[in-house]
């Protein structure tokens, strides 16, 4: 393992974390409304990996590369480089994401599928790269999998864009999704789509209408790639904490509670899409809530 790529084995499946960018000491209000710093500080297991001593948040934007049955799948493509964005820490990035992918042993041409759990700004960015005059698919041999429900929702948003957030969304779709469609590389899929016999999707709506997570099951072991069911491990400690980015906070909370209960009951490895390192772990019951255990050795018998 190294500081930019971690690898997990789930039965016969390999999952590798590829970092785009990481943020340390993010103000709470950038992700959660009305969440006091002392609430974060009170969850002792968040420090130092996921939160600072002052109660600010550590956040990661990374992809997961899943290898199953000889098929290579990238789950979520982060922020991307050279993208004009209103959000300052996403604007015109120049990260070594592709170099980190290469260090893990993969070229863009090696990827068979790109799955976007949803179509937000920080999950589609590396779908495309800038050549100097146009956006082209980063992974030219891959089929890009977009949820049908998700695309239908954002296509309507793009057509009706009026407020600044909708206009930003239109920009994101135009530089990171539409070029894939124009190239004929996309497939619109249902929320229960199966990629291999070991890797399938399941619906986790609320954050967005068509949000999906990834279930891996191989040789008696299981893992979930969460997507934005949770933005930060504080939402494991208290599933009732809502992200400001949720389309439907109440629905997202119901989905999160069901997700956490299933993961805890079945001993599922959970891979957080925005969790700082260690990004993978197990959900352990802790009083009326849960905590995140990075080692299976800490699980109850």
TrEMBL record:
Pfam families per UniProt: Lactamase_B (PF00753)
Statement: the UniProt record of this protein carries the keyword Cytoplasm: no
InterPro entries: MBL_superfamily_lactonases (IPR051013), Metallo-B-lactamas (IPR001279), RibonucZ/Hydroxyglut_hydro (IPR036866)
Entry keyword set: Hydrolase, Metal-binding, Zinc
Residues annotated as domain Metallo-beta-lactamase: 60-274
GO molecular function, one term: hydrolase activity
SMART domains named among the record's database cross-references: Lactamase_B
Alphabetized SUPFAM superfamilies for the sequence: Metallo-hydrolase/oxidoreductase
UniProt similarity note: Belongs to the metallo-beta-lactamase superfamily.
Protein name: MBL fold metallo-hydrolase
